[in-house]
Q: What sequence folds into this?
């Protein structure tokens, strides 16, 4: 794979955490179904999955913010100008109705 064809995408921490929670709950279900763990052990396994996903999310969020401050290649490009402003009321009406004498 050529390095110039690779594109880097910014890290979406929310997707990462939700994916980890999903995989953790599916893993806990698989362990319980295959009788590797019993019901009493699942009571601490699910909260451990949630806490672990939260910690990984916090670490990823911190790494992402440090990456932005450091001026690396992952910085966002210059923001695009806002072409449509739904609250812009400084425009002139473009059409007039018959009998409108304003």
A:
């Amino acid at each position: 794979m050529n390095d110039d064809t690779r594109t880097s995408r910014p890290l979406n921490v929310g997707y990462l955490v939700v994916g980890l929670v999903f995989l953790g709950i599916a893993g806990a279900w698989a362990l319980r179904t295959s009788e590797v763990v019993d019901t009493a052990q699942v009571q601490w396994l699910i909260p451990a999955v949630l806490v672990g996903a939260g910690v990984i999310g916090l670490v990823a969020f911190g790494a992402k913010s440090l990456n932005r401050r450091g001026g690396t290649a992952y910085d966002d490009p210059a923001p695009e100008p806002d072409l449509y402003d739904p609250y812009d009321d400084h425009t002139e009406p473009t059409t007039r109705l018959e009998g409108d004498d304003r």
About this structure: The chain has a mean pLDDT of 76.
